[in-house]
Design brief:
Structural class: alpha+beta
Distance between the termini: 68 Å
Radius of gyration: 33 Å
Strand order of the largest sheet: 25-26-27-28-29-30-31
Number of helices: 35
Shape: globular
Strand content: 5-15%
Helix content: 25-40%
Largest sheet: 7 strands, mixed
Length: 1019
């Protein structure tokens, strides 16, 4: 009996800790130890045995087996790792492009041996593939963050389901990293501004007029932290005067936000900033519409208090700055962004703790009052409203060149004017901003440019040189939602009476040129607000939306130019925002979904606009980031919610699947990246339009993601069924998951350019259908299994299970007296490929060939056939790149992101790797030595069955020899048949004209059994 082990006191064992948790929990505390019999010589105690290298004839010698070597059946695998040394080796070996990330574009071997914990590092295990190696690098970086020198790392963290991993990182890591506070503790982080081009890096904070306590608080912080050199400034009572705001361009700063009064621990009071979430990357401040979508993700993740605090900041901004600002920096004081406050507040209100409903009611009252003020003083006030039509516009005040842009952003625009005055662009910019040079045409250009930035869609050819004149469909939809939300809140929460506490002018209603020309305005305190007025406003807005923005011929909503008095026929995906707001009729919704959705739906979701509307791209006319082919989280979330609202749940789920698939594949292939936006046609985050992309510049481990992209993932998962979630985790292409018949014309037009499966199939040199018509076919009747009988299917399912096992295995199903003992094939000790069993009835009337499928296992598991199983799967039933899921390695090296593949690389892989020969040999062995031998049995009916890969091979054998085949949970055989140039019977080929390719079976004797579909036999 082994002696009792006396471990040191206070030791934490790895067996006792959770695995897939956030890094702070996983790496918190001291070192964790494994329960090893050689505990004293564990690597984590500093003992690092060196293995002698194997040279020449010694390479095959196996090391002496030790008592602590891993057994074939073991618990979860864990690795002993020296953090710094392993980081060095991983980067040196795998990071071939030197960006401190492991991605599919790196040319390293994609394999690394790690010492296992159960053997104290003596036995190693290979981790393979981009996903596992990038996860290893991330885990090492996180361990370093927690000051860990050596760790015991669970393999489960390297092979973690990517959907679970990304969702967990967003919930427990990314939100935390994006959290900011404006107070003494948070100022040093929040005052950093990557957009500051003045050269002055010392922090500056602007405090609003009427907040003397807050101003004194920040002055005290400046005195207590002199190293910060904090400059505290108090704004005038009207802080959004254009001339004043322009004067701040040379001295930008952060704007103070809402704070709570708390005890200072010394018997007094002090202030503490309310935390909020920033978008990330170069956007290190509170933003308007970003915050709405971020809040949706926060609510999914249960962070109601954080979302509530962001509404508190918006209430503060409306009170002190006159509007919800584009962003909380001084150069944004004249601009707002798309309004979402009412929906944001109501969604949070519905999730507040119900233990104090009166406090919740008072909080909602403050939010609704602020929204009413913003509505009257910003959105239906001049210059944003067009009194003639009643349409509201993005039309902010402002002077000069927007200072937050990159230095060269407007060079192309300014060069002609600088040349006109005979000075440099820099000198012209300074004189134009100072008002020394007057250029009315440039003034108009920047009026529209500021409007584009206020719209949130900066930039797009949709708004080029006209945005300030447009009554856009997105803004009208949002204001309709404001009007309905305010009316509903007044009626349902405030007993149909709401007295406004702050005084301001109410906008006239209904709007008209005469009403707005009258300078007399009704005061906000002159009467209580009632719901019927707000519902009347909503009805009026719906009327002008239908009148000016809906196009019956084109089945779309369009923006309306209030100056030219005509629709702008740029096709924008914001045409679906009325579904989110609820202002589209059922008929309009039906037309949008059935006639117009196809224009925007691509492989990775919905694009911002159509390629036709965008126009041709050239050096003189470069891409804009809010045009085709780019996809943004706000557009995805709005269309998902809108479609669901009108009952089109399947369409919403399909679009959500597309976008989350694109996010997940980028996460798997590119070191966990979560960017600001995507090229949804190429399925790429490598965007070269304008600012490029945000959220992609990190080292070793993603720490923030990007605000609204994080939310899109969390919200999107709420649309997923469990089956869809598993398919996304397996990186299953939407083409495969939904089938080609479900694809709209626009999407089908792009498939051949981006989908390797489509490329491989469409470019095959020999057409299966052409061969079918050239060959002579004989019709024969054969007896097949009754696939409508549950008992028959159960018996065949038992046989497919037995194909994986030896007949003495405890999991072997006893088939009773109805079947003779099996004849095994491919079970020789050195066999590593095609295997299974043959079953026969006692009279040999029926013989069943049962073929084993892909053996389960991840990186080394699954038995001796696992490797060839996967290679066969890749070449026959997927792309040679093997984009099956995050655990699979590739057959050839053509994959470089963006789903690029071609037939040549497929053929090359089949030939060079001898895989086509190997698979062909498999068929030859079966045909000559097995199948033909079976046909020698007189009067026998031969059926071929299998599961997974075995089922697909059974289908191909059935096609080759005309034998009935039953496949359980197997991939479709159509593409594999084409790759092997197997012809199909003419009758089936002829059926192609009458049956959809996605639903017509290729071979008449095949019957597929699946969790999701059954292909009926053709009789």
């Amino acid at each position: 009996m082994a002696p009792t082990l006396n471990h040191p006191s206070g030791v934490t064992f790895v067996e006792e800790r959770p695995t897939n948790v956030d890094a702070a929990t996983y790496y918190a505390g001291g070192d964790s130890y494994t329960r090893s019999r050689t505990y004293s010589t564990s690597h984590i105690h500093g003992y690092k045995p060196k293995k002698a290298p194997a040279f020449e004839e010694d390479w095959h010698l196996r090391p002496r087996r030790l008592s602590h070597d891993e057994k074939s059946v073991t618990g979860p695998r864990r690795f002993l790792i020296d953090v710094e040394e392993t980081i060095r080796v991983v980067l040196e070996q795998e990071d071939t492009d030197g960006d401190f990330q492991i991605s599919v574009t790196d040319a390293g071997p994609k394999m690394m041996a790690l010492g296992t914990a159960t053997s104290n590092g003596f036995k190693t295990f290979d981790i393979r593939g981009t996903y596992m190696l990038s996860n290893l690098l991330q885990e090492l970086a996180l361990a370093r963050d927690h000051n860990r020198k050596r760790i015991v790392l669970d393999e489960a963290r390297l092979t973690e389901n990517p959907v679970d991993r990304l969702s967990r990182m967003i919930k427990h890591s990314f939100w935390h990293s994006l959290t900011r506070r404006i107070d003494g503790d948070g100022l040093e982080i929040i005052t950093a501004d990557p957009k500051n081009r003045t050269g002055r890096v010392n922090p500056r904070i602007y405090v609003p007029h009427g907040e003397p306590v807050m101003a004194e608080y920040y002055r005290k912080v400046a005195r207590e932290k002199p190293h910060m050199k904090l400059d505290v400034q108090v704004l005038p009572e009207k802080p959004d005067d254009p001339s004043f705001v322009k004067s701040l361009n040379s001295k930008p700063g952060i704007l103070a936000l809402a704070m709570n009064e708390i005890d200072d621990g010394k018997g007094g009071k002090t202030l503490k900033g309310i935390p909020f979430i920033v978008p990330g990357a170069r956007f290190n401040e509170l933003y308007n519409w970003d915050s709405y979508f971020i809040a949706l993700g926060l609510l999914v993740d249960g962070q109601v208090a954080m979302a509530k605090g962001m509404v508190d900041h918006f209430i503060f901004e409306i009170k002190h700055y006159g509007k919800i600002l584009n962003g909380s920096r001084s150069y944004y004081l004249c601009r707002t962004q798309p309004p979402f406050l009412t929906d944001m507040a109501l969604q949070i209100y519905n999730q507040l703790d119900r233990s104090d409903m009166e406090a919740n009611r008072q909080w909602l009252k403050r939010a609704i009052q602020a929204a009413i003020k913003e509505y009257h003083t910003v959105w239906v006030a001049e210059p944003r409203i067009d009194p003639k039509t009643g349409l509201s516009r993005y039309r902010p005040d402002g002077l000069g060149i927007p200072p937050e842009t990159e230095a060269t952003h407007f060079t192309q625009i300014l060069e002609p004017f600088a040349h006109k005055h005979g000075i440099s662009v820099l000198e012209f910019s300074e004189k134009y901003n100072d008002g020394i040079i007057k250029e009315p045409k440039l003034d108009e250009y920047f009026l529209h440019d500021r409007a584009v930035r206020e719209s949130g869609h900066d930039t797009t050819y949709r708004f080029e040189k006209r945005c300030a004149n447009l009554g856009t469909i997105d803004l009208q939809s949002l204001l309709y939602k404001y009007e309905v939300d305010i009316g509903t809140a007044i009626r349902e929460v405030f007993d149909d009476e709401l007295q406004l506490e702050e005084e301001f002018d109410l906008a006239p209603f209904p709007p008209s040129v005469e009403a707005y020309a009258n300078s007399r305005r009704e005061s906000s305190k002159s009467r209580v607000q009632r719901s019927d007025e707000w519902f009347d406003r909503a009805d009026f807005r719906k009327g002008i939306i239908d009148k000016y923005l809906w196009n019956e011929q084109k089945n779309l909503f369009f923006d309306y130019d209030t100056v030219k008095e005509k629709q702008i026929l740029y096709e924008s995906v914001t045409s679906f925002w009325p579904l989110w707001a609820g202002c589209a009729s059922e008929e309009q919704c039906w037309k949008l979904v059935t006639q117009s959705l196809r224009k925007f739906e691509v492989l990775g979701g919905v694009v911002s606009g159509t390629e036709e509307s965008r126009g041709k791209i050239s050096l003189e006319r470069p891409n804009r980031q809010w045009d085709y082919p780019y996809a943004w989280p706000p557009h995805q979330i709005m269309i998902w919610v809108g479609l669901e609202r009108y009952g089109y749940l399947e369409e919403a789920q399909r679009l959500a699947y597309r976008f989350l698939y694109m996010m997940t594949t980028a996460f798997v292939d590119f070191n966990g990246v979560v960017p600001e936006k995507f090229d949804a046609v190429k399925l790429s985050h490598l965007v070269d339009a304008e600012y490029g992309n945000q959220g992609i510049d990190f080292k070793m481990v993603p720490r923030e993601g990007f605000g609204w992209m994080n939310s899109a993932y969390q919200v999107g998962l709420t649309f997923m069924t469990s089956h869809m979630r598993r398919a996304v985790a397996a990186c299953t292409s939407p083409e495969v998951f939904f089938g080609s018949a479900a694809q709209p014309p626009m999407l089908n037009a792009n498939v051949s350019a981006v989908d390797p499966l489509g490329l491989a199939m469409e470019n095959l040199s020999v057409s299966t259908l052409e061969i079918s018509h050239q060959l002579q076919w004989n019709e024969e009747e054969v007896i097949g299994p009754d696939v409508e009988s549950r008992e028959t299917l159960l018996e065949l399912a038992k046989m497919t299970n037995n194909a994986y096992l030896c007949d003495d295995d405890p999991d072997w199903y006893d088939l009773g007296d109805s079947w003779n003992d099996s004849y095994p094939f491919g079970w020789e000790p050195d066999a590593d490929g095609f295997r299974g069993h043959v079953f026969a009835t006692p009279d040999n009337e029926t013989v069943v060939l049962s073929i084993k499928g892909t053996s389960a296992g991840v990186f080394g598991g699954g038995g001796p056939t696992s490797k060839k199983d996967k290679l066969n799967d890749n070449l026959l039933f997927s792309c040679c790149c093997a984009r099956i899921d995050w655990t699979w390695t590739t057959v050839c090296g053509c994959y470089r992101g963006g789903w690029k593949c071609d037939t040549e690389c497929l053929d090359k892989a089949l030939i060079e790797e001898s895989l086509f020969y190997s698979i062909g040999t498999t068929f030859e062995i079966c045909r000559q030595n097995l199948y033909n031998n079976l046909t020698y049995i007189p009067n026998s009916n031969i059926w071929v069955i299998g599961h997974s890969l075995g089922g697909a091979l059974a289908s191909l054998l059935g096609a080759t020899f005309g034998a009935p085949a039953v496949a359980f949970e197997s991939p479709g055989e159509r593409m594999a048949a084409r790759r092997l140039h197997l012809p199909s019977p003419v009758s089936i080929a002829d059926l192609k004209s009458s049956l959809s390719a996605a639903h017509a079976p290729l071979f008449s004797p095949l019957h597929s059994i699946s969790h999701t579909f059954i292909i009926p036999p053709i009789r």
